[in-house]
Amino acid sequence: GAVVSQHPSRVICKSGTSVKIECRSLDFQATTMFWYRQFPKQSLMLMATSNEGSKATYEQGVEKDKFLINHASLTLSTLTVTSAHPEDSSFYICSAPAGVGNTIYFGEGSWLTVV
Amino acid sequence: GNSVTQMEGPVTLSEEAFLTINCTYTATGYPSLFWYVQYPGEGLQLLLKATKADDKGSNKGFEATYRKETTSFHLEKGSVQVSDSAVYFCALTSFGNEKLTFGTGTRLTIIP
Fold this sequence. Notes:
heterodimer; A: mainly beta; 4-stranded antiparallel sheet; globular; B: 12 strands; about 0% helix
């Protein structure tokens, strides 16, 4: 199947700083990628849809100025958490559709801890 | 809108026990249904899927049948192993939409 890779897998940052998470499609091109967030013991919630060459589409309640998404190429989308706070600590995971039937493939996820 | 209701956990079973994790859904149109598995410290992996009514998805001994009449997609395995310990998510997408709606997840622990 298709491979989606995220980096970094774990990151710790200080409160008030920004952190960037990358999502790459390794063996296919992705015009669309999706970013999810998972709080401890809760389900994954869709944050935004990343669109290559255009602005991301954010879900209701997600601050677009805080969670900056850039989909600059057909194989890379980045999520930047700006002015991070401890409540942003979470598991962030991206996905992309690929192949016949547009099966959704997920990255490994990124654990963000803001201290 | 779309929603997925999943059996609450955690679920603890002995090795070789029979497993059922219930999942029901509400969706417009004809959704595709999925089970994803998240092993400790890892991302999500697609376990199985079904795209139309009466389809049965299967993988690694797990099965789930798309039941339109009961809007359900229950996950089953006849004999679980310790290595099946993970969090299982039921999910769906509506026709033409690649956004996934997830259930809350069920944490499964298998004890030897």
